[in-house]
Amino acid sequence: MNFQLDENMLAIQHSARLFAEKEILPYAAEWDKKKIFPVDCLRQAASLGFASIYIREELHGSGLDRLAAAVIFEELAAACPSTAAYLSIHNMVSGMIESAGTPAQQSKWLPLLATMKIFSSYCLTEPGSGSDAASLKTRAEKRGNQYCLNGTKAFISGGGHSDFYIVMAKTDIRKGAITAFIVEKNTPGLSFGKPEQKLGWNSQPTAMVFLENCLIPAENMLGKEGEGFKLALKALDGGRINIAACSLGAARASLEHTTNYMKERQQFGKPIAAFQALQFRLADMATQLEAARLMVHKAACLMDNQHPETTKMAAMAKRFATDIGFAICDEALQLHGGYGYLQDFPIERYLRDTRVHRILEGTNEIMRLIIARQILGKFHD
After folding, report:
1. I need a surface site. Which of 10, 183, 245, 319 has the fewest CB within 10 A?
2. CA–CA separation, 126 and 113 (whole Å)
3. What are the pLDDT digits (tens) for 348-367?
4. Does the active-site annotation cover 361?
5. According to CATH, what is the number of the domain 229-379?
């Protein structure tokens, strides 16, 4: 085992950190306040290879591994968790096209996704099926050389703004078979709800997606018919690692701000960093962050090596890092006192943005269920 990043990985980390500090951090508060989707910044990130991190180079990707992705997302999220998280979703979509797409689909879409000439969304969740994703109601009916899609998707990042949607729909109600489809924004019958008003993640739009007699060519089916749920779950393993890494970035930034604040803030004639009780709290935050990072990096390495315990470790890392990341942001706000509650300081933004990480990509309650089932095997019921 080697717990040190090699020279190549350190260079990737430095590049991501420099971009985050120069191109994201100075504007993140304004994006949050005004609900700006930073299209130009995202395309700048794409020019550095951050929109197709683990796509093979021959398919217009960066050809990096999942560990590199975790390092990159931590750095970007240290500036703006919301913007980093959208990039995570975009990368997840690209990964699905690479792993399940036909050569024609790959050559058509991957160059556009890599440059972010087009933006993408992942559509699994529905108003009545969140954690119980297999109970989704969206239907896809074969009609000659087309499929007709009907249904509603909820909480879709990029909804209404993205050009490209991967939609999960049932193609066989009796067997519950789910299939993945590519739906373009200009498809007749595709429409969107109003932008959701959210606690955080304000630099990326979220909206419902409606499909009403949406006809798409059969060639837009992604993978084989009936294998969509398997494809979605595989993509979610990587998405969980990515969102866990985003929590690391927000927590690290909050810890760094708190460390500096404690050295400067004077109470009772001395810096609050001199009080042992507060030192202990800072020490616990740093220890928890380090433990979470180790779990995330281990999960990424297991996925890179196609290890059979990838799903369990991805769930563990997601559960632990997102819970701990939010807890560190919350503690950082507490240690800032009243100032932490003000938008003049970035802590409250990190707190709001990381709260949803414990819900998306599978709630942390579902992560516990996945972990328990992996441990217990056939005896879990």
Report:
1. 10
2. 25
3. 999 999 999 999 999 999 99
4. yes
5. 1.20.140.10
